[in-house]
Design goal:
heterodimer; A: 204 residues; alpha/beta; 5-stranded mixed β-barrel; 6 helices; B: alpha+beta; 60s Ribosomal Protein L30, Chain: A
Chain lengths: 204, 291
Amino acid sequence: MAHYELETPVSEAQIRQLRVNDTVTLHTTLFGIRDATQIHLFDHGRSTRFDLSGHAVIHTAPNVRKVEPSTEYPAGYAPVCIGTTTSDRMERFTRPLMTQYGVRMIVGKGGMRDGSLAAFQELGGVYLAIVGGTAALETTWIEQIEDVDLDDLNPESLWKFRIRNFGPLLVAMDSHGNSLYDVVRSDVERNRASALASLGVHSS
Amino acid sequence: MKVDLNTVEEVSKELYIRALKLLPPDIKDGFTQLAATETGATAKNVLATIMTNIEVAENTNNMLCQDTGVPIYYVTIGDEVDVGGHALMQAIRRGCERATREHPLRSSVVHPLTRKNNHSSCGIEVPVIHVDYSDTPDELTIKMVPKGSGSENNSFLKMAIPAEGIDAIKAFVVDCAINAGGKTCPPTIVGVGLGGTSDLCVALAKRASTRQLGTVCADPEGAKLEAELSAAINRLGVGPQGLGGDSTAFAVHIELAHTHITMNPIAVNMQCHSARRAKATFSPAGVTYGF
């Protein structure tokens, strides 16, 4: 269980060294994406001017305040509260994010499935678990909303955040075929019978 | 008691913002209890991070979670309260919209087909407003719940049959908690609706999931089943954030209604660990805020 401080973007070698239960703190840049962002990118044929290669994306749609663009707020948005949404809904976008845009890290909550795990293994990627529902804390790790693309989808725009000390995040799915969610899932399946037995129900 | 609708509008605005920022004391106590007994190393870290977040939200006057949810208002009107009907609903709606624009809050509400967001947290039938009546003559209460989607997406209804009995209820609730996994932001309050019609059953589940921790079902059989199910769910090992551990649920809450001789409906609605709610009570002495 090692800890890594990673400046984005990262190389494939940096990702391959990460193992489940390691922790990571991210620095520099983080991109925010969500359901509609990816539906428009991958189903509606749209594209982004951002270079996501080697970068981390976070499953989010932030609370922001619209302000006059300035040095402090170059995108015309001040952060209000930025947190993380459930990743599972966006499962089918992991592979295209990696093959078409070169994304290497997904920050999310609740975990992803086999398709994502296979993509991480083949292409060199990881899933970094953040604690969902801790947005007040997470907001303190974000220095600025640097830029925004696809903003007609607001709040599900493609956000570019400048970050510092973003973490620690838990490596919950690595590039070697390991997923903490799979471990928990098989434990839970085993525990199901005893839970039902405690209720006087014969497991089906 | 006559209630001024401008006050209702202001209070409805304030309730949305308060709910997003201040976690009720019973939920905080729930965390303290879970943290005291949790044995998993990762689970302990997750619970500690959540408890830190509660402090950060209070110290920075920020929202606990970015998900502003679907706004729900539960209104209870005493017999002697003069507050109007349609006009009351409109005042609540205006307050909800003003909270969104004036704070500002992320509007999380879209049209179900066009997916268009009008950035007001309002739309067709939203905010959801439930109206009920009480025999406390001079009292109007409004409870506000910003219902987050991670937990709401894990809502389930099963129209079981009488021959499947109580076992069907038990197995369904356990399997819902398993299927929800980490997606609901556990530890959760697992709200269970039993009986009624399909729509009432689901509404009961939501009422159960947003009930104060430490309260029990008014029906003794329901209360007994709550305790059994709470213990069983916490044997599963889903844990905080679905990363394993003892703390899968704060509690299972049940609300029930009588049902048809041929029916055995079961609904499950989860509330995430950011189990937010805020309440205002109007009385002749004025308005007081609570949870």
